[in-house]
Design goal:
With 87 residues, this protein is of the alpha+beta class. The protein has one domain. The chain contains three helices and seven strands. A four-stranded antiparallel sheet has the order 2-3-6-7. Strand 2 and strand 3 form a beta hairpin. It comes from Xenorhabdus vietnamensis. This is RHS repeat-associated core domain-containing protein.
Length: 87
């Protein structure tokens, strides 16, 4: 699947990382150093400054991670979601 198709698939499906991203290393790093969200949930977000994936049908440089069930897990988020979680 091409990157263009991956981006398109996130319009109605789940967010996706770019194929070359080391997901585990990225999510661990954001969990350690990311910005806590303002909605009371134990999540962290970060603006990575470069495209790391796609969300809502658009390339994304923002990520949200959480610690749940003994594992760190996250996904790219849209700029709107990032703004909502940090206001």
């Amino acid at each position: 699947m091409s990157w263009k198709d991956i981006v398109k698939s996130t319009k109605s499906g789940p967010a996706k990382y770019t194929p070359e991203i080391n997901i585990e290393a990225l999510e661990r790093s954001v969990y350690k150093t990311g910005q806590p969200v303002t909605n009371g949930k134990p999540w962290k977000v970060q603006d990575m400054g470069e495209i790391i994936g796609a969300s809502e049908g658009k390339p994304s440089q923002w990520i949200r991670v959480e610690y749940s069930g003994g594992t760190i897990h996250g996904h790219p988020i849209s700029l709107n979601e990032f703004r909502k979680l940090t206001k």
